[in-house]
Design goal:
The structure holds two protein chains of two kinds. Chain A is α/β, with parallel strands linked by helices. Chain A is 20% helix and 22% strand. The chains are: A alpha/beta, B alpha/beta.
Chain lengths: 263, 292
C-alpha cells in the first residue's frame, strides 16, 4: 500500500462523507469530490443518486475525462431547469465543493477577494448556488492545499454560504437545514463537531501532526480523536482507477505526493 | 401582428438606452450570441443585464454597454472566471445585484406572475441581503418565519436562442437542458427569439415535436432565423461550444486587454462576417457536443 497517493486517500475520505446518506443527490464538484461520491455509490451507499455532470441521473457513475459522448447510461433526469425544485430546496442533496475561502464558522466565499463589493480586488465566480445549498442541504468541502489563505483568520471576504456564525443570522429565519459535514484537505479530515459547531480535526493523514494542521489554519482548531486517516483498500483503489482512467487525480494535489508523508 | 419575423437589426432597434434586458442560456450554453453581437454593433448604453452569465455578459461589459448586472455567476465553465466581466468588476465600473442561482429564477418567476416578490429562505445567513438591499418579510401564519423577499426581476426585453420557430412564434426547444429560458420569456414585456431553423407553419413541419414548445407564442414578440446564432456557446443537439474561440476571447483580455482593439474579431461588422471568420455555419454546425 506504499504506492497509494494522497489524492487517493482524500478520495477515500470523501467517499466516507457520503456514507449512509440515503436516497439523495450526491454532487462532487472537482475530481476528488466527484470520485469520492462515485466510490461511495459503488461501495457502501448504492442508494445515492448522481448526475452525469450535465442533466441526466445515472446509476453507474460517469468516469472522468475524455470518452464517447453517449457512454453515459441515462436512468433519470435532473436538469438545471428543475434542480432547485427537486434537489436543493427539498434538501435532497449533499454537495462537496471547493470554495476559495472558509472561516471558523464554516462560512465560505467564492465571490470576490479584497476591495469592496462595488470594486473587488479580485472578482471570482459569484455566489453561484452556495446560499441556497447551505441553507437547505448538507455540504462538505475539499481543499487540495490547506493554507492560511484558504482557512482564513477572522471571516471570509464575502459570505457566500451560511455557516454557524450567530451574528450573521437574521432573527426569525429557519436555519434547521444548515448541515456542514466534513472538510477534507491534503493534511487532514475535519468536521464541525467542536464547541458551538467549531471546526475540529478528526483524523490526520499519515505523517501529519495536529501542529502541522494548526500552523496552516488561520483560526484555532479543536481536537477530535485524532486517529490516522485510513488508506483505501485494494477494492477501492480499483474502483477509483476505473472511474478515473486518465489519472486526472494525479494533478489535484501539488506534486502528487504519496499518502504517507515523508518527513 | 401574427407574422413576427424581424431582422436582428429590427430587434435591436426596438431596444433603448437604460432598458433591463434578460439573456437566456446558462454560462457558455444556449446563449443568443448573434443577438448580443447585434446589440454590440448598436449605440445602446446604460443597460441592466440579467443573466446566468457567460460571454454575453463579458462582452457587453467590455464594450461599456452595461450600467448594472444582475447575476449569480459569470463563467465560461472550462474557463471558470469570465475575464472581461472580471476586468469590468475590478475597475469598479458596474453596479451589481448579486444573488443565488435559485433566487435568480425565483425573481424571474415573481416577475412572470406579476408579483412584487417571492419569499425564500435563500440568502439568509449570507452577505447577499445586506449587499443587495434585499428586505425580509415575516410569515403572517403561526410559524412567523422570517424570509427574504426576492424582488421580481422584471425585464423590458428578453433575448433567447431556440432550435426552431415558425413566423408566429411557435418555438421548439431541444437539448438536454433548457435552463430558465421559459421564465426569461415570461418575465419580459417583450421577448425576442432567434432560432436555428425558421419554418412556415410549425404544424405542417414538426407537429410531432409540439411538446418541445417550451413557452407559448403569446410570449414571443419577434423571431429571426440565425443559424449558428449561439456560437461560441453550445446549442445542442446542433453544435457544441467552441472552446478554441472562448480561449482566444479570454486571451484577448490579457494585458493590455483593450476591447476596442479586439472587438472586431469577436463581434464582426456583420453576422455573416463573424461566422465566416470562424469557418462559416458549416464549421459551427460541426463543433462536437461537450462531454461532461
Amino acid at each position: 500500500m506504499t504506492d497509494v497517493t494522497l489524492a487517493e486517500l482524500c478520495i477515500y475520505a470523501a467517499s466516507e462523507a457520503f456514507r449512509g446518506n440515503g436516497e439523495i443527490v450526491a454532487t462532487g464538484v472537482g475530481p476528488v469530490p466527484r470520485l469520492g461520491a462515485g466510490l461511495a455509490k459503488l461501495t457502501h451507499t448504492p442508494e445515492l443518486m448522481m448526475t452525469d455532470g450535465e442533466c441526466y441521473l445515472v446509476e453507474q457513475p460517469v468516469p472522468l475525462g475524455p470518452r464517447a459522448y453517449d457512454d453515459r447510461k441515462k436512468a433519470g433526469y435532473l436538469p438545471f431547469s428543475r434542480f432547485f425544485d427537486s434537489a436543493v430546496w427539498t434538501g435532497r442533496r449533499h454537495a462537496m465543493v471547493t470554495p476559495t475561502q472558509i472561516d471558523r464558522f464554516g462560512q465560505i466565499n467564492l465571490s470576490q477577494l479584497g476591495g469592496t463589493h462595488k470594486q473587488p480586488k479580485t472578482q471570482m465566480l459569484g455566489v453561484r448556488g452556495f446560499p441556497g445549498n447551505t441553507i437547505y442541504h448538507p455540504n462538505s468541502f475539499f481543499f487540495p492545499a490547506h493554507t492560511t489563505r484558504v482557512f482564513v483568520e477572522g471571516e471570509v471576504d464575502m459570505v457566500s454560504g451560511v455557516g454557524y456564525n450567530p451574528a450573521k443570522r437574521i432573527a426569525g429565519g429557519n436555519y434547521s437545514g444548515v448541515a456542514l459535514k466534513k472538510i477534507i484537505t491534503n493534511l487532514c479530515v475535519m468536521d464541525f463537531g467542536g464547541t458551538d459547531n467549531a471546526v475540529r480535526v478528526v483524523s490526520l493523514h499519515p505523517g501529519v501532526t495536529f501542529q502541522d494542521v494548526q500552523a496552516a489554519t488561520g483560526f484555532p482548531l479543536e481536537k477530535g480523536d485524532l486517529v490516522e486517516t485510513p488508506l483505501p483498500d485494494a477494492d477501492a483503489l480499483a474502483i477509483i482507477a476505473q472511474l478515473d482512467p486518465h489519472n486526472i487525480r494525479a494533478s489535484v494535489i501539488k506534486d502528487n505526493p504519496p499518502a504517507q508523508r515523508v518527513s | 401582428m401574427l407574422d413576427k419575423r424581424m431582422t436582428a437589426a429590427d430587434i435591436v432597434a426596438q431596444l433603448s438606452d437604460g432598458m433591463t434586458i434578460g439573456i437566456g442560456g446558462w454560462g457558455p450554453r444556449r446563449k443568443p450570441m448573434a443577438l448580443v453581437r447585434e446589440l454590440l454593433r448598436s449605440n445602446l448604453k446604460d443597460l441592466t443585464i440579467v443573466a446566468y452569465g457567460g460571454a454575453d455578459v463579458g462582452m457587453l461589459c467590455a464594450a461599456g454597454k452595461v450600467k448594472k448586472v444582475v447575476f449569480a455567476f459569470v463563467s465560461l465553465d472550462a474557463i471558470p472566471l469570465e475575464p472581461w466581466f472580471r476586468k469590468a468588476r475590478e475597475a469598479g465600473q458596474l453596479e451589481v445585484l448579486e444573488v443565488d442561482e435559485g433566487m435568480f429564477q425565483w425573481g424571474l418567476k415573481a416577475a412572470a406572475f406579476g408579483l412584487p416578490f417571492l419569499p425564500t429562505r435563500v440568502g439568509l445567513g449570507t452577505d447577499l441581503a445586506a449587499l443587495g438591499g434585499l428586505k425580509t418579510i415575516t410569515s403572517p401564519y403561526a410559524d412567523g418565519e422570517t424570509l427574504i423577499a426576492m424582488p421580481a426581476l422584471k425585464l423590458d426585453a428578453a433575448l433567447i436562442h431556440v432550435n426552431r420557430s415558425d413566423w408566429r412564434g411557435n418555438v421548439q426547444v431541444f437539448g438536454p437542458d433548457v435552463y430558465y429560458d421559459e421564465w426569461f420569456a415570461k418575465a419580459a414585456a417583450k421577448t425576442y427569439v432567434s432560432c436555428e431553423e425558421l419554418v412556415d407553419r410549425m404544424e405542417d413541419h414538426y407537429p410531432d415535436d409540439a411538446q418541445f414548445n417550451l413557452f407559448e407564442r403569446c410570449f414571443v414578440t419577434g423571431v429571426v432565423e440565425l443559424a449558428g446564432g449561439a456560437h461560441p456557446s453550445s446549442m445542442p443537439p446542433h453544435y457544441g461550444w467552441d472552446m478554441k474561440a472562448f480561449k482566444a476571447y479570454a486571451d484577448a483580455a490579457k494585458d493590455p486587454g483593450v476591447w476596442s482593439a479586439v472587438a472586431d474579431r469577436f463581434v464582426g461588422a456583420t453576422e455573416a462576417d463573424y461566422l465566416n471568420s470562424f469557418g462559416g455555419k458549416e464549421a459551427v454546425a460541426a463543433l462536437p457536443l461537450p462531454i461532461f
